[in-house]
Specification:
heterodimer; A: 93 residues; mainly alpha; 69% helix; B: 523 residues; 2 domains; 3-stranded antiparallel β-sheet; 17 helices; 4 strands
Amino acid sequence: MATAQEVQQAKRDLIESIKEEGLDPNMLMQLGDMAEAVLKDQSLYPQFLQAVIDNDLAEEADLSGEIDYQLIGFFVATREIVKEMMASGELGA
Amino acid sequence: MGLKKLGKWVKKNIKPIAAVAAVVFPPLIPAIGAALVPAGASAVVTLAAGAAALSGAASAVSGDKPSDILKNAALGGIVGGTVATVAPTAFDSGLFSGSGAAASGTAPAASTGVTNGLMGSTLPVGAGAGGTQAVAASTLGATAAQYLTSPAGVSAATQVASDVASKGLIGDVLTKASQLTGLSEGTLGQLGSAGVQALLSGYAASKTADTQRQAAQTAADAQIEAARIAAEAARFRPVGVTTRFGSSNFGFDAQGNVISAGYTPSAEITGYQERLKTLAGQGMTDIEGARAAYQPLTGAAQSLFSLGNQYLAKSPEQAAQDYITKQQALITPSRQTQLAEVQNRLFQQGRGGAATAQGGNLMNTNPELAAYYNSLAQQDLVLAAQADEEARRRIEFGSGLFDTGANLQGRYYTGQTAAYAPFATAMDTSVGLENLAQQPMTLGTQIGAKTTASSAEAGRLLSSGITGAAATMLPSNAYSLTGDVLGGISQSPLVTSAIDKAFGVQPQQRTYTVEELKTIFGT
């Protein structure tokens, strides 16, 4: 289990990279919502992958095989971090 | 099914964020687990499946048996190279079916774990999932969780955590994990140290989230109570006041809110006001009659304006000429009489035709007649001078008539305005009396505002104290000893090492490859 310091460091690194890449926080929150929706309805996974590609976060999707839950978890957690940072003002909308 | 070529940003962040995802968003592991395992599976199995899938090691497909998910997790590396002996049937026990039936598979009974372990004596002997008693795994997990969140459980967990950190009591750790998760020690051994860590991490995250949620709720409740107290203290409470001139009346609802405010004038005030009301009525009548009363001024003013116009209509020359004409008309008869008298006297004296020289180029003339006509000429000169002066006076008089007319017209208006004075005086006096009667309500409001301000300040201080206390207690309340102990245990090198030892895993022991494990599992 990650320590509080490790979690904070991971958050800081993520926000830093979002700023470096100039990514839209709202887009990331939307992808997080879509990822969470996939957990309730797996048939939405292809649309989620397409959204990730459409936002230039990946180049190609393999629509055969299994759901990548790490990817799902990553976007859900990213949404939470972005939401927290936007609320605190560390990340602009 | 996934992304074949991740973008640079995703590739850089996915593993670090996935590693902390369970902490960042505690419901994530249960949600992933729920997406993977069938409904009715135990919470432990759901957590394990979610943790395994989030780790990225498990290749999980919805509908897979939980045992397959965990098996995949082991194969994919969650158990990693440290797993030495994972039996192909390790995940096929009844435990994972969620049926609640006691496991009868390969896991050994944890018959002594309760009496010697963390749980003390509150749990039934042999309550481990691998035990022989028919205790449902899910029920056991809930009971254990309930115990661990109790004061006795927390105290025991603290003590054991301290022992683990200092002594590395492996047997107790295994017993605790078995009691907590509902898995037998044997099954835990087959999961391996990393698998146990995944279980403990997932459970710890869940317990920490629960505690934080409860702490947040407690803090929120405290703030609501503080706000309620502050609002109650700040509620406006006017004071009833009675003076010689009146008394205040405030109405309140059932909650103590002011819903009406008024005052009652004294009999003295109302008596005066009644009399003034009569005077005011008379004053109003005067106002209504003032216009007609002053109307003649308007007609007089118009007449003066008209007369003035007549005086000013003539030029100064015309006015002078008119004056001369009028004056000559007056003196002509007397002149004619004087001439006749002179002529008669000359005739009587016989000098009617006599004429004498006057010298120079002047004609010869009769001296009496010369004197007479010279006198007329002199009078005409004087008359002409008087005519100019008279013309100026007429112009001044004409314009004076306009001034007088304008004054009269002005009095027409000022008279009407002045007619309002009796009415206004009566009304002003009545208003003054009303203000006197109103004073009790004003005083009651002012006194109430001051006392309310004091109460509000007291309420605010109390509220801020409660809120501050809630904020002070929040970290303490949010601290999940169970979660942190479990999290710490799962991360402890001592525990990891001890578990490895308990399972016969030695650092120098052979490391299996994925292909070898697949062969063992027959997949």
